[in-house]
Amino acid sequence: MKGSHHEFSHHENNAEKLRQYQRINEWHIEQFVYMMDRMKQIKEGESNLLDNSMLLFGSALRDGNSHNPHDLPMLLAGRAGGTLSPGRHLSYEKDTPLCNLYVSMLERMGTPVERFADSSGILPGLDNPDYTPATRG
Hints:
Blueprint: H1 5-9, H2 15-41, E1 43-44, E2 47-48, E3 55-57, E4 75-77, H3 99-108
Antiparallel strand pairs: 1-2, 3-4
């Protein structure tokens, strides 16, 4: 079956389209893992590139078939130079804006903003306990 990621994301619950969509998503995940592994091998001072970075993997839609933008599974990898505490699953209240994650990431990149799109603040629980953001401390 020929098609594209976008076409298969509108799968209409067709078993063959779902199978193709799954294969595409598995490939994307494999590439993300490969990138993280390579970044971990690149030394930067006392640390490595992955520890000094933030990588976001996810989508603005939970289900492309229904264009559902709620309860999004997002993966934030890396330690952002020690500002993130990784290796955990965090769950937020229903309808927490995705842009709250972007605001939290911008803060860690030295670009604090009061608001971004529909954000309502930062996401609690991301911080390394030893991190005190300049904009909040």
